[in-house]
Amino acid sequence: DVKVTQSSRYLVKRTGEKVFLECVQDMDHENMFWYRQDPGLGLRLIYFSYDVKMKEKGDIPEGYSVSREKKERFSLILESASTNQTSMYLCASRRERGVKYNSPLHFGNGTRLTVT
Amino acid sequence: RKEVEQDPGPFNVPEGATVAFNCTYSNSASQSFFWYRQDCRKEPKLLMSVYSSGNEDGRFTAQLNRASQYISLLIRDSKLSDSATYLCVVNDPSGGYNKLIFGAGTRLAVHP
User: Which of A50, A102, A110 lies at the smallest CB-CB distance from B98?
Assistant: First the structure.
């Protein structure tokens, strides 16, 4: 069974702090993703990566960066946290490239970040 | 117009009822469609993919209507454990591979 592990379930940070959210998957998946989920807006893609050291911007990359130094690990970085980044952050991984194969996204259990 | 739209609900139904959700999408070139289920305070999990000819998995039936650009999910004989938020997911062909767009979800509450 695929396991996607996010390092923290809850985080509280202050405005201006640098924040690291870590995600590890154990199934050798090529693709990894960071989403945020807000009420009424659904999940929105921040960044994704299809290989080590590769990254692509999603729909809302502003204020975020990512790092993928190893295949199993994908980190989301908030360079200078702001209150509008208070949200639920979900990491996901996926087995193969391309949506045509319909392989599912496997999500971690989320990190609820509060920026005060 | 949102790229993927769902009625937020909630749909309140008794056990044993049949309930259907629709989801509309804006990009006619989309090729991949999914329904995910999300329980309260949990991560989304794949419920089923949606294929062109329609598909069934036990009590769940998914349909795709390309002409009208919507997908549907039908749940028969609802159980209390079906209470959750159902997310419609469609790929964005203009965003390259792996670009999936999530609807905001439809909440289902099944009561005894």
Answer: A50
